[in-house]
Amino acid sequence: MKYMRAMLLSLVIGFFLSYFIFKQYKSYNGITVYKEGDEYFFLERGVYDSKTDMEKNSINLENYIYRKENNKYYMYVGITKNKDNLKKMKNYFNNKNIDTNSKKFYISSTKFSESINNLDNILVNSNDEIVVNEIINQGLSKYEEIILNDSKN
Q: Global pTM?
């Protein structure tokens, strides 16, 4: 009988301890140490309340992509994986009096990664404004072709 009480008490204590530990574990967010996919830098032109507002602010742009999130339209005008190329792209738009901010995203697509790597390799070796413009447009086109069109299928 006295062993029965000790076993029962141990089970009850064990149950409550495990309950509290698991309850804390469920609410623990932790620290993310790994992001899925490759790291990309997107040049954000702006955030707009409507698609019409966004389109009005894209008049001086040859090419852009956008995404809608929380009823806001986020316009992006460039994509790279290379921080030096990010500076070149920002300077290109600054010279045209177009303000941009950089945003970091992670994308898992080998095909897109290879395309951006190829474009980045070309841009690293050039400061020519025509080349920078073409690389920016090619990167946006590859995003539309590979990422956006694949997600629609």
A: 0.73
